[in-house]
Amino acid sequence: MNIGPYTVERQISEGAFGRTFLGRHKLLGEPICLKQEKTGDPAYMDLFREEAKILWHIHHVSLPTLKDYLEHPDFGQVAVMSYIEGESLAELLQGKGPVDDEHICWIIQRVLDALSYLHYKRAVHCDIKPANIILDVPTHNAVLVDFGLTIVGPGAASRAKGGTPHFVPPEFLQGLPPIPASDLFSLGITAVALSGGNILNGTLPGDMHPTLAQFIQRMIRRDPMARPQDARKLNQELAGLRKSIFGRTSTREDFKLRSH
Fold it and tell me: 3-class DSSP state for residue 7?
């Protein structure tokens, strides 16, 4: 099937509100990701269009790029996104198991860098979880995807549009407005999941380096004001922590799972 200048090759995934397809630009031959709104519900169509408007202004190596936006007579609303090679952290955990401490660090650093950029643009992602982070191991990159719940310019009256159980910050359930620290909570719980810890109570593995464990536990404090507030400063702190624990701030090792 053709949609404008794009050819649909195969379906990648399907959720409650949309489908994702692998496509290709007919003239350039380059792969792209086609995200389709499938409900036809005006409310969800408005949210889908709003997500496209948010992504239109986003340009960062650890965030997807919106290439085009179409409203097709047969296919409905379509967001044409950069195609990101790799698997989600949820798929990695299910297929391979928990991740080594040093590799948890670089994954979290990539997402913190993306959040620093997003928060500077006054956007709160609101749905950080392993399923929404795509890992590109060869380039040591982690890409934060799915901006369907993102809120731009949150104020005192803003409320979260939803969230994922166990990863949703406590303040969302209390009806409080999303703030940057809300994303840091969800990223902290994601780090717990990566380690093989308990995402229900935030318990981390006993073999995790205690300094790293303390760093993650600060991110998942229930009181949003008691958490770190600045993704950029937190990223700098994690770089220093890596140096003190591992004697280096980067590694050329492709990927390492947690030893048992």
Answer: strand
With 90 as the cut, is the pLDDT of residue 219 above it?
yes
Can you read off the two tokens belonging to residue 163?
């969230």
CA distance 99 to 130: 12
Q: What are phi and psi of 34, to 5 degrees?
A: -105, 120
- Number of CB atoms found within 10 A of residue 80's CB: 22
Q: Which amino acid is present at 197?
A: G
Structure tokens at 178: 């999303």
pTM: 0.92
The helix/strand/coil state of 50 is: helix
Residue 85 neighbours by CB under 8 Å, 6+ apart: 136
What dihedral angle (degrees, nearest 10) is formed by the CA atoms of 32, 148, 18, 53?
-60
pLDDT in tens, 119-142: 999 999 999 999 999 999 988 999
